[in-house]
Amino acid sequence: MPEQPQILATLKEYFGYDSFRPLQEEIINSIFEGDDNLVIMPTGGGKSICYQLPALLLPGITLVISPLIALMKDQVDGLLANGVQAAFINSSQHENEQQEIYQKLIDKEIKLLYVAPESLSFLDNILAQVTISLIAIDEAHCISAWGHDFRPAYTQLGYLKNKFPETPVIALTATADKATRQDICNQLNIPDATQHLASFDRENLSLEVRPGNKRIEQIIDFLKDKPNDNGIIYCLSRKTTQMLAEKLQNQGFKAEAYHAGIDHQKRTNVQEGFINDTIQIVCATIAFGMGIDKSNVRWVIHYNLPKNIEGYYQEIGRAGRDGLPSFTLLFHSYADVVQLQKFADMSGNKEVQLAKLDRMKQYAESLSCRRKILLSYFGELIQEDCGNCDVCKNPPTFIDGTIIAQKALSTVTRIKEQEPIGTVIDVLRGAQNAAVYDKEYQNLKTYGIGSDISWRDWQQYIIQLINQGYLEIAFHQNNKLKITQLSKKVLFEGEKISLANLKDIEKAKEAIVQISNKTKANTLFEKLRELRLELAKEAGIPAYQIFSDATLKEMEQHRPMSDDEFLQISGVGRQKMQNYGYQFIKTIIDFSAEKTKPKKKKSSKKGNTHKETLSLYKEGLSIEEIATTRKLAQSTVFSHLMKLYQDGENIDLAQFINKADLLAVKKAKEELDSPEGLKPYFAYFEEAVDYNTIRLALLLLEKDALKMTTNDNQ
Ligand code: ADP
Ligand code: ZN
What percent of the chain has pLDDT over 70? Predict the structure, then answer.
């Protein structure tokens, strides 16, 4: 079994990460022990590394069963970009291509082989000739009819354990449901698998629910301060996806529709465009997103209410896989509820579907922390309110709603519980329309007693009454409103009722709209993003496969200016350092130089981090001591000092370079005829002198040219 340091070194070298996420290490160790494992982690939790890392250290091949061709290709491309030997076999390939892969397998040139379950049976012959060290079954819930995504081809996978009884199996899924979990283990013949259940909390996703009126206006507003961020808008119908995409295009957004009715080629184009950041917004039915692994989706909007919480959570989970703050917005409308009710009615297991829809509705209508409700659905309890949902950010205040409730409930009674919400409100407000006159409701005692409250507010109040159990919607009788046992207490026993203050809620929504990230055209992050896009286009791979947004953010924050520093960024492994390091470092150096140019003296942009370093330096601490105190890399401290020196601070830089290096750079400068940038020097020294040293020498040569020369000659 590999030792801990070796495992960590592999994590850094191939994936660029310094530490594991929760559960990853435990799972990996269990694989090395030879155990079977079932991993339940939310989308974006980091499942892949749980088998990809062991694959690198185990002697034989890791066989990965994956249901979708697009997903497979994506994973393999990602692995290759990290310098890991991986390949996939599926029906879309040419025979020659497959033969080539078989040969590589036999020659032990492949560590991970991705296979669709349908293709497994063709591989018997070849698998008999190689050592299989690990079998990973991704999206394992597809094996269970209990899950929400059953795939018949998965059901034969149980034979793998019989065929390779000694090989550990790891099954992975994002479905938390207990019945499904046990079913997966049974069907895969791994009844004793260790189950690892990760927290489903995705703290970086903000949660927000808004009433579904004027949705398009709200969306355009929402998008205004996210001009560069990608996102998905989920809709219930194909028609809506198209209508919405068109409206957004008219507003100048790069938006496209995606649904199962669009022809295959066009769908592929949309998907690729989205992955490669050339399409910003995809308006999709739920068909979209399953097969993509894009880590920098920054927001997800639900134009319609989803039919259950599993689906909703999976869909919002496609945002922010890189761990950076991401937004989710759900529009809630009663028309959607009615529509979904009808779907459920027509479905096979109507009771289950209706119960699930009910939970979804409770979530959307909650007046307490939404994350608590979500997580409790997955069997997880959190003590504190989350602070990152709309309710937490703007908790409602309550008013005495007794009179409002009495007016509504007695109106419902007087119209003999024969009308849906809309007509009830019409009667309350004294509307003069056919719905009222046809049935002579204008003669009722309560006609017009609620004319002081707007139509929309009445709707909100009635929804609150429904949620509190004082009214019910009879979905099977054209959505007529019915009174309940509870409402009798209000009508006849004087029970008091609290209702959320709508003025508050309105204000809160406005406030949330205003909390937004400012436009960020000229930041280093944008520059790095542009570079990433350029490199991705050249290489023909998705941008996020070069570096994730999280990695770019770290570059922006730490500004690595040497290979060493660059390698310390989370997400930078050896292969990517070699492929892209120079260009990214150059962009960072150029950007930093640009920003400091106009203010030669003390730059106000210098920021606290430089000031802190400066004050420690002035206290007489060494670079090493400053680095330890500030928990920074020595090279970072060093680059701070150079920066401070450039800004005119009194820093004795000469002490940090030995004469030989200084002279070498001086010589190089002459021979190369004072080239621009650091790369020519780096190349000249065949990478033996690091960027920081070169930069330091050039600084000294430039500023103190004369003095240095005299010193050298002594
Ligand atoms: P899942 O398959 O569970 O949806 P992924 O395996 O695609 O999730 O991982 C989601 C993201 O998290 C990826 O961008 C991945 O590179 C990143 N990630 C995984 N493990 C770590 C880690 N230990 N440190 C930092 N990032 C990680
Ligand atoms: Zn909350």
Answer: 92
Nearest CA to ligand 1 atom 10: 44
Question: Which of ligand 1's atoms lies nearest the C-alpha of 15?
Answer: 16
What order of strands is seen across the sheet that includes strand 132-137?
A: 86-89, 112-115, 61-65, 132-137, 169-173, 37-40, 194-197
Neighbours of 448 (CB within 10 A): 15
Q: How far is the CA of 11 from the centre of ligand 1 (A)?
A: 12
Task: State how far the Cα of 543 lies from the Cα of 538, in Å rounded to an integer.
Answer: 10
Among candidates 260, 295, 258, which has minimal Cα distance to 279? 258
Q: What stretches of 334-420 show up as alpha helix (H) in DSSP?
A: 334-346, 350-364, 370-377, 390-393, 402-414
Q: Could you write out the three-class secondary structure of 419-468?
A: CCHHHHHHHHHCCCCHHHHCCCHHHCCCCCCCCCCCHHHHHHHHHHHHHC
Q: Nearest bound ligand to CA 375?
A: 2
Instruction: Name the DSSP letter for residue 519.
Output: P
Give 553 Cα–ligand 2 centroid separation in angstroms: 26
Tell me what the mean pLDDT of segment 371-392 comes to: 85
Question: Residue 570 Cα, ligand 1 centroid: separation in angstroms?
Answer: 12
Using 50, 70 and 90 to split pLDDT, how confident is the model at 16? very high
Whole-structure pTM over 0.90, yes or no?
Answer: no
Q: What is the tens place of the pLDDT at every residue in 436-473?
A: 999 999 999 999 999 999 888 898 898 888 877 788 87
Exposed (0-12), middle (13-18) or buried (19+): which is 550, by Cβ within 10 Å? Answer: buried
Cα of 19 from ligand 2 centre, angstroms? 28
Distance of CA 163 to the CA centre of its chain: 37
Phi, psi of 42 (to 5 degrees): -65, 160
Place of tokens 């690198």: 56
Residue 578, CA distances (Å) to 11, 72, 87, 536 in order: 17, 25, 22, 15
| Rounded-to-5 percentages of helix, strand, coil across the chain | 55, 10, 35
Q: How far is the CA of 368 from the centre of ligand 2 (A)?
A: 7
Nearest CA to ligand 1 atom 17: 46
Cα angle: 496, vertex 499, 502; to 5 degrees = 150
Span 173-221, pLDDT tens digits: 987 667 778 889 999 999 999 999 988 889 999 999 998 888 999 999 9
> How close is the Cα of 240 to the center of ligand 1, in Å?
33
Token pair in block for residue 385: 């309110």
Q: Which residues line ligand 1 (CB under 6 A)?
A: 17, 20-21, 24, 41, 43-49, 293, 295, 321-322, 548, 570
Contact between 461 and 498 (Cβ < 8 Å): no
Q: Are strands 471-474 and 480-483 parallel, antiparallel or unpaired?
A: antiparallel
Average pLDDT, the chain: 86
Which atom of ligand 1 has the smallest separation from the CA of 544?
14
- Mutation test residue for ligand 1: of 8, 21, 48, the one with most atoms within 8 Å of CB: 48
Atom of ligand 1 nearest to the CA of 50: 6
**Measured between alpha carbons, how far is 556 from 554 in angstroms, rounded to an integer?**
5
Q: How far is CA 147 from the centre of its chain?
A: 23
Q: Is the dihedral of CA 494, 500, 506, 507 positive or negative?
A: positive
- Give the sign of the dihedral formed by CA 158, CA 159, CA 162, CA 168: negative
